[in-house]
Each structure stands twice: as structure tokens, then as C-alpha cells.
């Protein structure tokens, strides 16, 4: 796995220069917060190259025919990002390239279209992989579902299951979003105003991902293939991720000997050595997770066994570009199983299970009542066994869904569990469960 210096905290490092900051983080293996900055401010990274750091960044290249942009940030940040871009350059936006179809990358495109109309410019030509429009069409078919999971993931808000209580003030896909005009399959070359750009398709967090190479400046534009957190290859509420294909794309990038890497989240990186170290570490953890999971699958282990057996070295997880602050390795293992093994977890009882409420009531009878289950769950939580505690409190709440005392215990258990998690995904889901019970006890 390789030896790395132990990360250190550099609390006094403050700089507006993203290159200076990333170089210090990588060279000194230092944890400096934040490495994912949402400032909506533009920084020049070199001659005619700039980045606007936002929830999802915009990357800009200046050419003789106008600007070439990668991503438009999200709906909420789109106007602020365009405003920062226009303080740097007021030329026409010739081309807009979507690194993939997540809405924090494409949702702000309406602000770019509005800006073009104000300035009497032609609209930019929008490029993306052929799966981008397919993704957006899927989002439209699952509008309510996507609203639910984003409320839960980012806000810790959970509608009552099966009650149809979602609140949607607008469509999940913004109505003013620009759809791709030109799509490609595997690779494509674009030349704008003397700047040549090579598009490459690489699966990773999504199946519609584009990463780009700009030979003139030896620059990689990586989108979400580099995130400055543990790779988002296991999100429990989203569709299939592709960890091995992700690693393959990172390995291919390493062969370019790039001098500048610009991601869609986190800090840009300067210098071939720094770039290849980060790319190599990301690829390594993904390759290792896939190899170890498949080895145990081939040996006949069930999913529940594998989830608890496959681990990433804690030293690696301490690296500033690999910390599990959004996704985490355990979830990636589940996605690997889903890709190679299907949806069944190999537990015979789960193939055609009873309704959960029936199981909960039966266990409640065996335990001497739902309150007994809840009390045991509370005891286990106090002892530190939160995983087992959550199983029991779920059974107790299902057996007596209107019991305010049980839901008070449930809310407290999930409050404790949330406080002990590092990843946003876990925190969001546990917070949603906590608030669900709080709504019943109010």
C-alpha cells in the first residue's frame, strides 16, 4: 500500500491562492480546512486559465474565439459564478462542456444563457457525453424520488415512508438548464481559437463522465474523478458507481505527465509529482477495494460478512485527499457487490422476506414488548454498540409506530450515531431518522 507521512494539522495556514494551498497540503501531507471551498471567487491558475470555486467549480479557458468553460455550477450558485467569471473576461462563451450530468454541475447553465442574451451573444454550444441527456431524462422520470433523497442526504430531512409527504416547490431538473447540443461516445477533439482539447469518457461516480486533456498547457480537467475526499463510489441512495473503471481512468491520466490538474471539487494541483501522487492514491484504494471484495465473493462469503471484513488502511484514510467526509469505503463495498453479484445479499431469509412490520411485531412478542426492545437498544447505544442498537430500535418503532416514548429513544440513538460519523451520507441518513422520530414526539 505504500508508506505516507502522517497528516498534520496546519491551523495557521491561510491563503486565497488555491495552488499555493494545495501544494502545501500535498507537500506537507497537512490537513488544512477547507480544501473544498465554496467562495464563488475566481482565481487565475495560469495564462488564460481560471477557476471559480463553488459548490461545484467552473473552469475557464480564454481563447481567440471566446471562452471555453467546463461546468456551470448549480442552480443556486450559477449567477454568482457567472458574475465572477465576467469580472475576469467579458468575451462570448463559445463552448460549455459538462463533465457529467449532476445538477450541481449543469444546473447553473441557465445563468450563462441569460448572460449571453443580455450581452447579445450567441448561446454557447454545450458538449457532453451521450449519457448526459439520458441521465437528465431519468431525473425527470424520478423527480419526486430525487427530491426525497437529496433532502435526506444534504438536509437530514426525511418524509414519512410511504406517506407521500414530499414537498416540491420546483422540478428537480431546472427548467432553464441548457441541454447538450453535441454528444460523443468514447473520445472527441475540440479546437477553439487555437486551443485544442481532448475529451475522454471515463466511468466513475457516473456513467456519463468526461475528463479532458489540454496539450498546450499540459492540463487535466477531471470533473468529479478527483474530489479531494474519498471517492464517491458507493453512495447508498444513488445508482450504480464504477470503482474499477474509475481507477482505470485515473491510471490513464497519470500517463499524461500533466503539469496542472483542475477538478470540479476541491483544489487544483500543480506539478506532475503532486498530481500523480494524488491520482495514484485514489486509484490504489479503489483497486484494492474491488480486489478484496471480489476475492471474498469468490470464496462464498455473504455481503454482510464482506462489509465487515474489507477495510481501507486508516493511514490512507487520513490523507487530505482521501478522507471519508462524503462517501466511505463500506458503501463502496456494497456497490461492488451490486455490480458483480446482483441485489441479493446471499442470506436465504432475505430473498423473499416477510414484511418488516411483521418481523418487528414477532420479535417484540419474543422480547416481552416493544418497550423492552427499545430499552435494550438504549443500553447497547450507551455501551457503544450503535450498529446493533439501531437494529433493535427500528424493530421497536415498527412494532409500535405511534409510541412517543420509543420514538424519543430512537431520536436520541440516531442523534448519537450521527455525531460519531464522518461522512455526509451517513450523517444525513441518521439525521433524517432522528428528525422523523422527533416529529412524532413533538
What does this protein structure show overall?
The chain has 442 residues and is α/β, with parallel strands linked by helices. The chain folds into 2 domains: 8-286, Metallo-beta-lactamase domain (Metallo-beta-lactamase, Chain A, 4-Layer Sandwich); 354-441, Serine Threonine Protein Phosphatase 5, Tetratricopeptide repeat (Alpha Horseshoe). Helices cover 45% and strands 15% of the residues. The protein is built from 17 helices and 15 strands. The strands form 3 sheets. Strands 3-4-5-6-7-8-9 form a 7-stranded mixed beta sheet, covered by helices on one side. Strand 5 and strand 6 form a beta hairpin. Helix 7 (243-254) packs antiparallel against helix 8 and helix 9 runs antiparallel to helix 11. The longest helix is centred in the middle third of the chain and has 27 residues, at 272-298. The radius of gyration is 24 Å and the shape is globular.
Question: Structural class, please?
Answer: alpha/beta
Radius of gyration: 24 Å
How many structural domains?
Answer: 2
Which sequence of strands runs across the widest sheet? 3-4-5-6-7-8-9
Topology of this protein?
Elements: E1 8-9, H1 18-28, E2 30-31, E3 41-46, E4 49-53, E5 58-63, E6 66-70, H2 78-88, E7 93-97, H3 103-106, H4 109-118, E8 125-129, H5 131-141, H6 143-155, E9 182-184, E10 187-192, E11 195-201, E12 210-214, E13 219-223, H7 243-254, E14 260-263, E15 269-270, H8 272-298, H9 303-309, H10 314-317, H11 329-341, H12 348-351, H13 356-367, H14 370-383, H15 386-399, H16 404-419, H17 424-441
Parallel strand pairs: 1-2, 6-7, 7-8, 8-9, 13-14
Antiparallel strand pairs: 3-4, 4-5, 5-6, 10-11, 11-12, 12-13, 14-15
